[in-house]
Amino acid sequence: MSYICMVVDGAYPNDIRVRKEAEALVKNGKKVLVVCPRKRNDAQKETVNGVQIFRIGKNYTFFKKGVYDVIESVFNFHPFFYFGLKKVFKKYKIDFLQVHDLPLAGTCYLFKSKVDKKLLLDLHENFPEALKTWFLWKKSSFLKLKNQIFMNPKHWSKKEEKYCKKYDVVICVVEEMKTKLISKFAIDEKKLVVVSNHEEKAFVSNFENNTNQNCIDANKFSITYVGGFGPHRGLDTAIEGMPEILKTCTNAKLYLVGKGSTDVQEKLESLIIENNLQQAVEIVGYRPFKEVAAIMQVSKINIIPHKSDEHTNNTIPHKLFQIMLSKSLLLVSSCAPLKRIVEKYDAGLVFEANNAADFSAKVLEAYQNYEAMKPKMDKAYDAVVNKGENWESESMKLVELYNSLSV
């Protein structure tokens, strides 16, 4: 039996993109094996929704990952995955090897001769540019030095070019990423395929009769962010915009639902204190996924305030489409993919990225004209359900890709 083997340096099925791709292929008659690290108490082998999982190692910790990342950066060789994959190739017949994201590209390329058909590189984001923003708020001098030496964006940009040229197919997460690879590295357009982070239409069921949340105060004009915290997320822009909002909308409150590193949390907390916003901004913290839909649904505005840079302009979050399905008002920054989708369907409001004053202005526009914004909410919903901006449509690009490669 031959498999499409997906390799990911993360937990499965927790990684949403990998899970949706694997399950879409299984639903369309493909045999999929996901290879990922094994943490303490994880089963080595199991099957989830038809996807076979093979976990390598025994106790893959955050510390071990950091050590292996340094080795991989220097030698283009990740020993944990290399020896793990050697076991995989002894046990399974692999037709296709699909590598998720740039850091494992070098290691997986070493198995090219063992793959019966094609190698595919699935780029979840613009990794070299992401390195410029992920660590901006780090306090540790040691970590700053380590990242400067081993996670240097220029070094990783060279790797990106090298492996985009070596792999048979490169899967891009947005059209903007495809354009960037062509213009910057002259990658052959024929080998580039866009498979975006759309949401399933069935996600809408999460919003039906859903009142399971106690985070958002119904008496407030709630402005809510749901997701991971980091320097590139633009949460500082939202916080800095709140004082101007409160001058007109005195009951406005910004809710930050999610979590980040200790350094990121402390940065956000310091901004809240500096702007005297302790009563107007609440860091809710992590909430179980079952509550997220309810939080989105009851919020007056759901925001995606990403900074605009070469990282955020070349990726797109799943939560964009989740918010569109919630029929709540959407406010996004002018990052290229976010702006493109929202303006194409008139599905919400767009503010100038990194601009706290414009963020405030757009929130107040919504506050003062909320009823007039209802058509935008309906258009957002319609774009996902009826206009093809959904995973059911997007996933067929991946299925058709494998069908064409199998001929």
Keywords:
407 residues; 14 strands; 45% helix; 18% strand; Rossmann fold; 2 domains; alpha/beta; 6-stranded parallel beta sheet; 8-stranded mixed beta sheet; globular
Verbal overview:
By secondary structure, the chain is of the alpha/beta class. The chain folds into 2 domains: 2-198 and 390-406, Rossmann fold, CATH 3.40.50; 201-385, Glycogen Phosphorylase B (Rossmann fold), CATH 3.40.50.2000. It contains 16 helices and 14 strands. The chain has an 8-stranded mixed sheet, sandwiched between helices. A 6-stranded parallel sheet has the order 11-10-9-12-13-14, with helices on both faces. A hairpin with a 2-residue loop joins strand 3 and strand 4 (51-56). Helix 1 (16-27) packs across helix 16, helix 5 (127-134) runs antiparallel to helix 7 and helix 12 packs across helix 15.
Strand order of the largest sheet: 3-4-2-1-5-6-7-8
What do we call the CATH homologous superfamily of the largest domain?
A: Glycogen Phosphorylase B
Mean pLDDT: 94
Distance between the termini: 17 Å
Instruction: Based on Cα principal axes, name the global outline.
Output: globular
Question: Architecture of the largest domain in CATH?
Answer: 3-Layer(aba) Sandwich
Q: What is CATH's topology name of the largest domain?
A: Rossmann fold
Helix content: 40-55%
Order of helices and strands: EHEEEHHEHEHHHEHEEHEHEHEHEHEHHH
Domain count: the total is: 2
Tell me about the biggest sheet?
8 strands, mixed
Percent range for β-strand residues: 15-25%
List how many beta strands DSSP finds.
14
Oligomeric composition of the shown chains: single chain
